[in-house]
Amino acid sequence: MCTGACSKFIAIPLYVLALLSIICNFFLFFPDLDTQYAAQDRKGLPWLTEEVKYMGGVVGGGIMVLIPAIHIHLTSANKCCANRCGMFLSIGFAAGGVVGAIYSLSVSALGLANGPSCLYEDPVSGLQTWGTPFANSNGSYLSDKKMWDLCLEPKNVVEFNVGLFSTLLVAACVELVLCLIQMVNGLFGCICGTCAGKE
Prior knowledge:
This protein is mainly alpha-helical. The chain has helices at residues 3-28, 36-42, 56-75, 84-114, 157-192, and strands at residues 118-121, 128-131, 151-153. Helix 3 runs antiparallel to helix 4 (84-114) and helix 3 (56-75) packs parallel to helix 5 (157-192). The chain is elongated, with a radius of gyration of 21 Å.
């Protein structure tokens, strides 16, 4: 396979994964698909999971991958950037995508490890309070579904967060692999050419 065709093969999934990351991060702002939690968080109350506000899906897995995907896609087009210089530049853009994917992966892993912010009954005081009841569980809550009942509000917030953060984690891993492959592909394209003129 020519390096130019390989670039196109890499860019198209990156578009989809970047869009998926942005959508997942957007939905994480609305647990139970309700805007009241984001509104209360803006007032200073800790009603949103802290890792959601790091915007790993929008900034890291989204924008920082989408921009390289556009350039990588252009390197596959004839008479555009399908030359050695374009392939050389794609190495740098792909490296930016790697950084974005690592950021998204880190935030997603942290979000899964700490668990969601929710209304729960404090075992010491017996009072209901907002916070992250699973923050000190080292992620053990993920395998123990009985612990999920600790969260009283928003409804099904643990499933919601686990599903979306897991999707972000998988998307970031695939983005990372694709961007690393493009860095190698760009190096070969820079050294050997893109095969754009060989039909």
